[in-house]
Amino acid sequence: MHKNLKKGTPMATIITDECINCGVCEPECPNEAIDDGEGEGLDYFYIDPELCTECVGFHGEEACQEVCPVDCCIPDEDIVETEEELLERAKKLHPEDTFPALDDLTNKTSLFRNPDRKNANL
Ligand code: SF4
Ligand code: SF4
Hints:
Blueprint: E1 13-15, E2 34-35, E3 46-47, H1 63-67, E4 73-75, H2 83-93
Antiparallel strand pairs: 1-4, 2-3
The structure holds iron/sulfur cluster (2 copies).
């Protein structure tokens, strides 16, 4: 896996080194959390953990993983974040938007409630 650029901060979804740099995921992220690394002189895509909500509040699974042709957007196995923490991050990142209450999240707005997502067994 690529090293995270901001070690020590919580991580949600991570892009592994199986990435083929196709760029398909970048525009799909509701939080603009995916970066191609060019600005930092890197030659690989990475996810900013401070911007990733695992798509909670927006989609029923990780939008990046949903479109990734090699399924290399996977949950970080070391740091697990709760649905509540991720929803709160979404609210902070999008103060102008309205989000469902935690109890009202569904399989369309939270991967925690979607057993059919690609990463369900990871
Ligand atoms: S899981 Fe969702 S929020 Fe996180 S990087 Fe992927 S598309 Fe963006
Ligand atoms: S869609 Fe997958 S393979 Fe393509 S850039 Fe994103 S993480 Fe890499």
